[in-house]
């Protein structure tokens, strides 16, 4: 391994007038390497990301459809409740003398309970949509992070000697710990 490193170091000492050489300064070349790795990840990973987003979109749309079906059922219940209300109103005309206030109370309770059910279903739909969106975002973030990490590790493993490799790993572990704390 030392011979390979020495050959790269000796290549770095070639005269710079019109020749090609390797920059062995890891701090100067690391941002360039990372930008190249990120560019490659974006270029090759956009299909995977697009597929993930399409799948998540389908799940969210299915959830919305299910919520709309539930909403349709609630509207159906509301219509049934209105029909029942009309029936109760007809009975109220017949029994107005004996129980007008009781019938009005039942009518209001029926309408209130139906609206509460509708509100609960609407809230459930909105919570489900929000939950699915957050889950999709978190999955996409996780996948992109894993792919970036794999690409960066592959590049680092293929281009560093043991000493530089260990120093870079230690620095990146600290960096990822900070990033994880920020995202949590």
TrEMBL record:
Residues 71-98 form a coiled coil. Pfam families: ATP-synt_B. GO terms for cellular component: chloroplast thylakoid membrane; proton-transporting ATP synthase complex. Its main location: membrane. The chain crosses the membrane at residues 32-49. Signal peptide: none annotated. GO terms for molecular function: proton-transporting ATP synthase activity, rotational mechanism. It is found in: Membrane; Plastid, Chloroplast thylakoid membrane. Keywords: ATP synthesis, CF(0), Chloroplast, Coiled coil, Hydrogen ion transport, Ion transport, Membrane, Plastid, Thylakoid, Transmembrane, Transmembrane helix, Transport. It is a single-pass membrane protein. InterPro entries: ATP_synth_b/b'su_bac/chlpt. It comes from the Eukaryota. Belongs to the ATPase B chain family. In plastids the F-type ATPase is also known as CF(1)CF(0). F(1)F(0) ATP synthase produces ATP from ADP in the presence of a proton or sodium gradient. F-type ATPases consist of two structural domains, F(1) containing the extramembraneous catalytic core and F(0) containing the membrane proton channel, linked together by a central stalk and a peripheral stalk. During catalysis, ATP synthesis in the catalytic domain of F(1) is coupled via a rotary mechanism of the central stalk subunits to proton translocation. F-type ATPases have 2 components, F(1) - the catalytic core - and F(0) - the membrane proton channel. F(1) has five subunits: alpha(3), beta(3), gamma(1), delta(1), epsilon(1). F(0) has four main subunits: a(1), b(1), b'(1) and c(10-14). The alpha and beta chains form an alternating ring which encloses part of the gamma chain. F(1) is attached to F(0) by a central stalk formed by the gamma and epsilon chains, while a peripheral stalk is formed by the delta, b and b' chains. This is ATP synthase subunit b, chloroplastic. It comes from Corchoropsis crenata var. hupehensis. The lineage of its organism: Eukaryota, Viridiplantae, Streptophyta, Embryophyta, Tracheophyta. The gene is atpF.
